[in-house]
Write a structure and sequence with these properties.
There is one protein chain. Strands 3-7-8-15-12-11-9-10 form an 8-stranded mixed beta sheet. Strands 17-16-18-19-20 form a 5-stranded mixed beta sheet, sandwiched between helices. The protein has a 3-stranded antiparallel beta sheet with strand order 4-6-5. It is an alpha+beta fold and about 400 residues long. It has 14 helices and 20 strands. It is elongated, with a radius of gyration of 25 Å.
Length: about 400
C-alpha cells in the first residue's frame, strides 16, 4: 500500500541519514563550537579531494583558469555589487580599523577584479575563471541541518566572460559538463529554464537573445526542459538543474545564470572588432553547488557505500594466519604502487569478525589470503554487499581495481 511505501521510504531515509553515516564512517562531524560548519575528518577529506581533483581535471580540459580571491572584503565592494542592499542580513560583518568588512557570501564581485586588471580584446574572450572558494552565509540557526544547510560553504564556482555571440556555445559546453558529472553518480536530472521577470534590468533585446540562446542550447543537446516564465533573476535568465536521488527526492544542484547587471555595475569592457568598448556578458555557474551539501547528498544516495574511486579505503588485505603476512605485504605493495588506498588488517582476530567489521565500514573490496592463495599467487575477493567473488591472480586483480578507479565506474 501507499502507506507501507511511505513508511519504508522513511525507514530507508533514516538508515541513510548523512549525519549518522558521517559519524559512523568517520567522514565529518559537527560541534557546537562552530554551528553550521563541518569538521572534515580524514575519510571525508578523501572524498572531498577526489571530487575536487575530478573537477579540476575536467575544467583544465575545458580551458578554465583557476583563480583565488580574498575571503575578508571591505563593504564598499558589496555596496557596488548591490549585495549590501539585498543581502546584508545574511552576511557576517566585522570591524577592522574602524572600517566594516564582511566574510564573502559569494565570489562573483571579486572575480570582476581579475577580469578588470587589464584591457580586454574581443579575441581574448571567452575567459573562464574557476574558483573553489570558501563562503560564509549567516543562515538562521534553526534552519541548519547537517550538511544540507551550512553557514560555511565551499563552492565550485566559475564565472565566464564572453561576447553575446558566444553565449550559445558556452551554454552548450556547460550543459555537457553538467550531464557528464551527474551521470557519473547515477542521478537523473531535470532542467528548468527561467525567463525575464517583470522587474528586470538590462537591454530587452539582449534578454531576448540570451533566452533564445539558452533554449537553443538545451534543444541542441536534446534536453527536455520545463519553462518557468518570469522566474529568472532581475539581472538575467538562468537554467537550473534538479537531480533525483535513489530515494526519489529532488535536489536543486547546478545553476547556469546569465548576468547583465554585474558587468554594468563594475564597468566591465572589452574592445570589439570595430575598436569600440562594449560590455561582456557574464555567466555564473556551479555544478556541485556546495561541496558540503553535495557530499551530504552523495552519502545518502549511496548509503555510505561510495563508488570505488571515491571510497576512503578502497581495498583491505586480510591474511588468515601469520603464515600469509609476507604474501599480504606483497599484495599491499602492488596495490600501493598504483596509489590504491589500501589497508592491511593483520590483527589477531577471527577472520569472520574482520570480514564483518569491514563490511560495516562499507569498504568496496576485501582480499582474503590463505595458504591456497599464497601458493597459487591469487587473491580471494569479497565485494561489499555482494559477498564472495572467487579467486583471481593477484596481478589481474590489481589491474581490475586500477581500471575501475580510472574509469570511475558506478557499480560492477
Amino acid at each position: 500500500s501507499d502507506l507501507d511505501d511511505y513508511l519504508n521510504r522513511l525507514e530507508e531515509a533514516k538508515r541513510r541519514d548523512h549525519r549518522r553515516l558521517g559519524k559512523e564512517l568517520e567522514l565529518f562531524v559537527f560541534h557546537e563550537v562552530s554551528p553550521g560548519a563541518p569538521f572534515w575528518l580524514p575519510n571525508g577529506m578523501i572524498i572531498y579531494r577526489e571530487l575536487e581533483k575530478f573537477l579540476r581535471e575536467e575544467l583544465d580540459r575545458r580551458g578554465y583558469q583557476e583563480i583565488s580571491t580574498p575571503i575578508l572584503v571591505k563593504k564598499d565592494l558589496w555596496e557596488q555589487s548591490g549585495h549590501w542592499t539585498h543581502y546584508k542580513e545574511n552576511m557576517f560583518l566585522l570591524e577592522v580599523d574602524d572600517e566594516i568588512y564582511s566574510l564573502k557570501p559569494m565570489n562573483c564581485p571579486e572575480s570582476t577584479f581579475v577580469y578588470r586588471q587589464k584591457v580586454r580584446s574581443y579575441r581574448e574572450l571567452p575567459l573562464r575563471y574557476s574558483e573553489i572558494g570558501r563562503l560564509h552565509r549567516n543562515e538562521i540557526s534553526g534552519a541548519l541541518g547537517g550538511m544540507f544547510r551550512v553557514r560555511q560553504i565551499t563552492m565550485d564556482d566559475a564565472h565566464i566572460y564572453c561576447r553575446p555571440d558566444q553565449i550559445l556555445s558556452e551554454i552548450g559546453g556547460l550543459l555537457d559538463l553538467v550531464l557528464k558529472f551527474y551521470s557519473l553518480f547515477g542521478f537523473s536530472s531535470e532542467f528548468n529554464l527561467s525567463t525575464k521577470p517583470e522587474k528586470a534590468m538590462g537591454d530587452p533585446a539582449l534578454w531576448e537573445k540570451a533566452e533564445r540562446a539558452l533554449a537553443e542550447a538545451l534543444e541542441e543537446k536534446k534536453i527536455a526542459y520545463r519553462l518557468k516564465p518570469g522566474e529568472g533573476a532581475f539581472y538575467g535568465p538562468k537554467i537550473d538543474v534538479q537531480i533525483k536521488d535513489v530515494l526519489g527526492r529532488s535536489w536543486q544542484l547546478a545553476t547556469i545564470q546569465l548576468d547583465f547587471q554585474m558587468p554594468e555595475r563594475f564597468g566591465l569592457e572589452y574592445v570589439d572588432e570595430a575598436g569600440k568598448r562594449v560590455r561582456p556578458v557574464m555567466i555564473h555557474r556551479a555544478i556541485f553547488g556546495s561541496f558540503e551539501r553535495f557530499v551530504g547528498i552523495l552519502t545518502e544516495h549511496f548509503g555510505g557505500a561510495f563508488p570505488l574511486w571515491l571510497s576512503p579505503v578502497q581495498v583491505v588485505v586480510i591474511p588468515i594466519t601469520e603464515g600469509q603476512y609476507e604474501y599480504a605485504e606483497h599484495v599491499l605493495h602492488r596495490l600501493q604502487s598504483y596509489s590504491v588506498r589500501v589497508q592491511l588488517d593483520d590483527r589477531n582476530e577471527k577472520i569472520n569478525y574482520k570480514i564483518r567489521e569491514w563490511e560495516v565500514k562499507k569498504v568496496p573490496y576485501m582480499v582474503i589470503l590463505g595458504e591456497r592463495e599464497k601458493t597459487s599467487g591469487t587473491v580471494s575477493v569479497r565485494q561489499h554487499g555482494k559477498g564472495d567473488r572467487g579467486a583471481i591472480p593477484t596481478e589481474q586483480f590489481v589491474k581490475k581495481i586500477v581500471e575501475e578507479i580510472e574509469t570511475k565506474v558506478l557499480t560492477t
